[in-house]
Design goal:
alpha/beta, Rossmann fold, GMP Synthetase, Chain A, domain 3, binds adenosine-5'-diphosphate, binds zinc ion
Length: 435
């Protein structure tokens, strides 16, 4: 059997629930024993009086400690390393979206396993070695570049390691090499499309078949808009550097939730305040334990990402459970006039309107001790008739819908196309000037 056939028909990909759970019990035992070899976990287990060999099944996970981003920062750079330094072949760090980056060290087996998981994702989308893949994600310490790269090569696709930015060159490469699949942040994919439209070009003329979009939260509405503009099928891709990077959870052709590879990750959804498991199907914080990592296993890592497990089986037949689209991180939640608001709620409203472009910015200010939210959007050139009257109506309509969505008055500023800062990687959607 060739490598690729092995990946697509991987014994892990099609495991039954029973097979998965019995694998997980054994893998968890192994991971905990491995973690105990690191200075950090050895000290932690000792402090808790926990005997790693007493962990025997998935149920025992509750007795294990949580690991936080702060723990990773404290043990930086190698306090959680379990193997000889000379057996480490790669270091990645997180993007540092919410503070000091964290570092993850990988052995050869880890890089290999990551490539396998990633290739499994890409194959699941229907991509094959006949596809041509352009990776618009940042190479370097960020995991989106090399993560997708190794996975795509493992599948045998021809890979263009374009990296982010230089939009004119991205478009030229896609055309010159008949690229069929791209990987980008949704915000960058939107920027490329709008740039093409503003130049009288048509994104659907690129002939792209699939896009793998992730690394930042986005709404179903944003996906729909991108699919319409490009005519490709967009697959949601979730990962974080602490869990390798991309390749953790990915959509199948049903495009309804992301299968999380449960042979490699033990998933819990907990209430972020009590840290108790939530009821099935309820939203909570995603907590993950690595099951197949050698150099730096992480136990009950608190991702701070909010999601839920979708109930029921996926029609595709895979038994790895599905995560719902991320609502965002717990720290993305804005508290405005005492009301909890996620940027995704604003995006959902914006994306419904054809006359607005895909870029937006939420500004928070204070006026006489009262929080003010201003949403800045751009006109979509092709959809606007140019009349002031239309503009006034559109703005009023958007304000009304936003008020209905969040429950307080939001002001809307409609800007010229291209006025807002464009993103090449993770978009910055919020500017908080209240402090
Ligand atoms: P940082 O945590 O510094 O941003 P990473 O580059 O590791 O570093 O980013 C991982 C984070 O990106 C995830 O924890 C999550 O918040 C976000 N993310 C990744 N993929 C998605 C996705 N498909 N949907 C929503 N958020 C995502
Ligand atoms: Zn499926």
């Amino acid at each position: 059997m060739s490598d690729i056939a092995d990946l697509i028909g991987s014994r892990f990909e099609w495991m039954s629930r029973d097979e998965l759970i019995s694998w997980q019990c054994e893998a968890l035992r192994r991971s905990v024993a491995q973690a105990a070899k690191s200075r950090w976990y050895a000290a932690k287990f000792r402090e808790m009086g926990l005997d790693p060999s007493s962990i025997k099944s998935v149920e025992d996970i509750k007795r294990l400690p949580f690991t936080t981003k702060e723990d990773l920062r404290q043990s930086y750079p190698d306090g959680m390393l379990t193997i000889d330094r000379e057996d480490v072949i790669r270091v990645h760090t997180s993007s540092g979206t919410t503070g000091t980056p964290t570092a993850i060290l990988h052995s050869r087996a880890d890089i290999d396993c990551w490539a396998e998981l990633m290739a499994r994702c890409l194959a699941m989308s229907g991509a094959t070695k006949a596809d041509v893949f352009q990776n618009m994600s940042g190479y370097g310490m960020f995991t989106g570049g090399l993560g997708l790269h190794y996975g795509a090569e493992r599948l045998g696709m021809m890979v263009l390691p374009a990296g982010p930015g230089n939009t004119a060159r991205q478009i030229k490469l896609i055309r010159d090499f008949h690229v069929t699949c791209i990987h980008a942040t949704p915000s960058y994919a939107m920027h490329v499309a709008e740039r093409m439209i503003s130049e009288g070009d048509d994104p659907s003329s690129l002939g792209l078949k699939r896009a793998f979009l992730g690394a930042e939260p986005y709404t179903e509405e944003m996906r729909q808009k991108l699919q319409e503009l490009y005519g490709f099928k967009a697959f949601n891709s979730y990962g974080l550097s602490e869990m390798n990077g991309p390749g953790v959870a990915f959509e199948c052709p049903e495009q309804n939730g992301m299968h999380v590879w449960e042979d490699a990750y033990l998933v819990e959804i907990v209430d972020p305040d009590t840290l108790e498991p939530v009821e099935e199907g309820e939203v909570g914080e995603l907590v993950m334990t690595t099951l197949r990592r050698e150099a730096m296993p992480l136990i009950r890592y608190r991702t701070r990402d909010l999601t839920c497990i979708l109930p029921g089986d996926c029609p595709c037949g895979r038994k790895h459970r599905r995560l719902a689209r991320m609502m965002g991180r717990s720290d993305d939640m804005l508290i405005v006039r005492g009301v909890n608001v996620f940027p995704s709620q604003i995006e959902e409203v914006i994306m419904r309107h054809k006359w607005i472009g895909g870029n937006y910015l939420i500004r928070l200010t204070k006026a006489e001790a009262l929080d003010q939210m201003t949403v800045q959007v751009e006109l979509a050139r092709s959809e606007f008739d140019g009349s002031v009257e239309t503009l006034r109506n559109l703005r009023a309509q958007l304000q009304k819908e936003l008020r209905e969505q969040v429950g307080f008055n939001v002001s809307v500023e409609v800007l010229e196309p291209g006025s807002l800062p464009a993103s090449e990687g993770k978009a910055k959607r919020v500017v908080d000037e209240r402090a």
